[in-house]
Amino acid sequence: MCGIVAYTGSRGAQQILVEGLKKLEYRGYDSAGVCIQDHKHLGLMRTKGKLVELETALQAGPLAGNVGIGHTRWATHGAPSVMNAHPHTSVDGQIAVVHNGIIENYSIIKIALEKEGVVFKSETDTEVIVHLVHKFYKARTDAGEPGDLAKAVSEALTHLEGAFGIVVVSSYEPGVLVGARRGSPLVLGVGDGEFFLASDVAPIVEHTQKVVYLDDNDMVVLNGTYKITNQANAEVRREVQNIEFSAEQVARGNFEHFMLKEIFEQPYTVLNSMRGRILPEGTAKLNGLNLVNQEMRSIQRVIIAACGTSFYAAKVGEYLIEELSGIPVEVEYASEFRYRNPIITDRTLVFVISQSGETADTLAALREAKQKGATVLGICNVVGSSIARETDGGVYLHAGPEIGVASTKAFTSQVTVLTLIALLMGRMRRTSAEEGMKICKALAKIPDQIKEILLLNDQIKSIAREFKDKENFLFLGRGYNYPVALEGALKLKEISYIHAEGYPAAEMKHGPIALIDSNMPTVVIAPTDALFDKMLSNMQEVKARGGRIIAITDAEADLGKLADYTIVIPKTLHMLTPLLSVVPLQLLAYHVAVMRGCDVDTPRNLAKSVTVE
Ligand code: G6P
Question: Fewer CB under 10 Å: which end of the chain, C or N?
């Protein structure tokens, strides 16, 4: 998804912007650009493809100046190209804008502007913004009044529908940057005599720890100091926060890819997600939920809305909450939930789950649920994100920044947090203290058990080598491990571009069984729970058709000739197995993708944070 970085201060802007854009690469992009203001001139450089193209172009023709805006674009309107790359400039080349989001009414504005003689240079929705700003700026100067960039931006914003985070620079007002947001994130970094604006803190953190998360409809003007105004143009104060994580945490460390680093972080990130939240009496303490016990007890139904990996974590949550609390749970794709007419009463509790806290569909689902009067709670990783701020309460994952586009550590932290929520709700209803304590004890062991699984990395790598050239995979699981099968298939297809399907194991005979042959490996998640024997039968069915099996199991017993490869994970309670069984699947997908030469951290066509519908 598009990334914005902007700088104003006394240092050269070019280097800061390019380095900042590199920190935003993980969001996914297809082109990039910068615009730097130097006295009465704006210097523009845009390239298609990876950032190295932009760097090379800037080496050949460096741009001087201490104020500038930069952008990585992920195409929505108009193909990836230099002309469609941001920044976009006004007709006279004196004003430039970068934008993240979608202007929904852009075609109406475009037609109106074209009638006024504006010639558009790109196919983007963004370009209307800069022409509107220019129009309002000129209207003032043509009337003999002094130009006012901030006023022109503010006026332009009143014409825009949709979602945006924008930053505007102009050679009419040297040194000034104007930023604004509605629906898309924008963070202000407050340095020593310098300021930054960015889509998230990653490009800011190496320069300053002090940030201000702008609210929806905020506009900020930077001109040696900063001033934030709201939609009513009234000045507002927003809290200056200290960023929780260091630049080092954002960096890749010694790992070849962020994804591998994040897989290996899981013993610590899972621990962080439960730290201080487990009580000795076998329940959980989740202060952020903001629900008094009475409200919690009166809940009759739970809905969880999410997308992607967060959706699969939600599916595990469904099983957990129903088993421990007896409250019926429905899990919905956020994109579906928002467009139907969901039944919500005042006894319905809605959770939205989002690693980034910025996924447009999940944010819209949250707003829809609130609109219908539900209490909406968030499970997010990114502190201060839109979803975290708009929910009535929630639980942070505390998993640290997740940079790899394919989500890994966020999944295990989401499942950990959902376990705690299920425990809390369960202990208010039908889970005994004894059962609660048993779960807490087992949960506390999970971080060390993940460490044990990570020791199997080499074994999993050699299995990956064996299967790396296959073009189809089937993942089977039952009960708690059905969502894990879905997540395992998603991981593989996201980063290795292999077609993979996740299925409930028993459902295999109603379709996928027709596909099985020696070229279609099947990954089976078969812990020794109540469904173990049934799983063995499903494996027999695969074997009987010449299929090859990779089994993930905690069985001490030999799976005999049923599995071609067996990855043994430690034993835990059946409800906690997803926290363990998913780890070998993450590693398998990772190694297969690396061996196929795929761009693991920034896979094609995908974005880390999908801030458009
Ligand atoms: C994108 C990412 C996925 C992620 C999904 C939901 O598709 O590529 O990895 O699971 O968005 O993101 P969220 O931030 O809402 O959890």
Answer: C
